[in-house]
Amino acid sequence: MWRIVKIVFVVASASGLISGVAYGQTPPQARTQAQAPSQAQPQQKQDSDRPAPTCSKILQMTSPEWIANVTAIHDSSEDGQLRGIRIYGDCYDARTKRLAAALGKSGKGPLMGARGDFRDFESAIKDFTAKALAATNPPADALKSAYASLYEKQFRYAFFQSYEPKIASASDAASKTAPHANAAPTAPKYPAPASSDASSKTAPSDADYMTKVKNRFGELLEALPDDKLHALHAAFGNILGLHPTSSATQLALYRYAIFLLEPFTSQNSLDSKPLAKPFSSPPF
To answer: In angstroms, rounded to a whole number, what is the distance separating the alpha carbons of residues 283 and 281?
Structure first.
């Protein structure tokens, strides 16, 4: 008799459980399993509520401003700086590609000969860059190399920017000719530090500043062993000597070369002494 009652009780309990599920009651075990994903939901929501800024917003900042913004949000390590450099560089490249595409579509972009000349010009810059980064003591690390790759992008953008139609008066249009097919890229209008802003100086001051830039470049070369000095001098000569450049482009090239050769310390390095303010600050 007891065995029959026990069987009836078990059957009734099972049928109650089944009916509970059928009417939307979650079994205790299922409720426990369902709570686990909900605990991770707030973090996912918090991340999705913080949309990434567009490239347009990013390029409204200077590269140091954007990189500082990234490291403040994510982390302050070298990885954070590399992440900021990569994102800024991707946006900078996208803008250059859009400009090149727009010029090509309008028929006002550089011709085949000009593009070939610029490839040679850019190749000479890359050759000098590789030699300069290897010549410093110690040789450039991943962070310095990433910054160099970012700042080299200014020349490609400036090349296409020099073909961009300018709004000018009738008298200006009559006195100026269109860019020659083999013209070298003009220097970008990058924001320079207030202490070394050559663009805001008068003509005599421009000449004085260019002299200071060349002297600083010479000082950095003379600090190198003779073999590296001669190799870098020849590589830099291949840029300026074989490619006609404007005075503004020459200034940008000297500043870029100085950046490559100047001592560099990560802003997060704790085991190194702070360096003096660099002579050549980031170009954008």
So the answer is: 6
Among all chains, which residue has been given the structure tokens 């059928």? 22
**What are the residue ranges spanned by the domains of the chain?**
116-141+177-189+198-264
State the 10-residue block means of pLDDT for the chain, 284 residues long.
40 41 44 42 40 91 93 78 95 97 94 94 97 93 95 96 67 40 38 35 68 96 96 96 88 96 64 59 82
Distance CA 240, CA 83 (A): 33
DSSP codes of every residue in the chain: -HHHHHHHHHHHHHHHHHHHHHTTPPPHHHHHHHHHHHHHHHHHHHHHTSPPPPHHHHTTS-HHHHHHHHHHHS-SSHHHHHHHHHHHHHHHHHHHHHHHHHHHHHT-S--HHHHHHHHHHHHHHHHHHHHHHHHSSSPP-HHHHHHHHHHHHHHHHHHHHTTS-----HHHHHH--PPPTTPPPPPP-PPPPGGG-GGGS-HHHHHHHHHHHHHHHHHHHHTS-HHHHHHHHHHHHHHHTTS---HHHHHHHHHHHHHHHS----TT-SSSPPPPPPSS----
